Amino acid sequence: MSVKILALDTATENCSVALLVDDKVYVRSEVAPRDHTKKVLPMVDEVLKEAGMGLSDLDALAFGRGPGSFTGVRIGIGIAQGLAFGADLPMIGVSTLEAMAQGVYRKHAVSHVATAIDARMSEVYWGRFARQDDGTWTAADAECVMPPQLVADESVTDEQLWFMAGTGWDAYSAQLAEVKFNTQKSEVLFPDAEDIVQLAKIEFAKGNTVDAEEASPVYLRDTVAWKKLPGRE
User: Fold this and answer.
1) Are the CB atoms for 84 and 132 separated by under 8 Å?
2) What φ, ψ does residue 22 adopt, rounded to 5°?
3) What DSSP character marks residue 212?
4) Low-confidence residues in the chain, pLDDT < 50
């Protein structure tokens, strides 16, 4: 099936854009923690120009739905919605944790990934994923936010080797070193639109899209930033 999907992600320190045109992918990616708003739209323009396309030529627009930085997730979904509204495109939200698992698979061809993003406040965004034959990922541990020591305490022994992805492994290395399953390092620290777009392609083929006004983020800890606003408790 011929498909053209644009994906973007600003949920973590990494800012990335990817354009999938059939089997070819045009990518831009840069670790730029404070410059997402400046960089993401120029990246979109660059990949579209490289492919010789416009937004109206696309079939769908995908985005990293979180978890991640509260501000970063909001930036990503806001920009994605604006583009989708303007071009009347359906949207596909993809888990940033699952995207990191896909990134490890792309680099190492392995099917079991344990993801941990540093969530600050002595917590991690956590999830473990196993890749299926159809290219989808099944959650071995449901996505959640929790203290890394609790991750270790609640882990169970198994015979599977789990590849590590995300900033949480380094940020809380002492606590997460106590997990009871076998682990192997990978160089994947952040989600990337290059992997989001591949997962979005699978969802698009299944008809799993939403209208732009229905696109929603996944914060996992969505009350924290709200409570920090002046006058809130």
Assistant:
1) no
2) 60, -110
3) G
4) 223-233
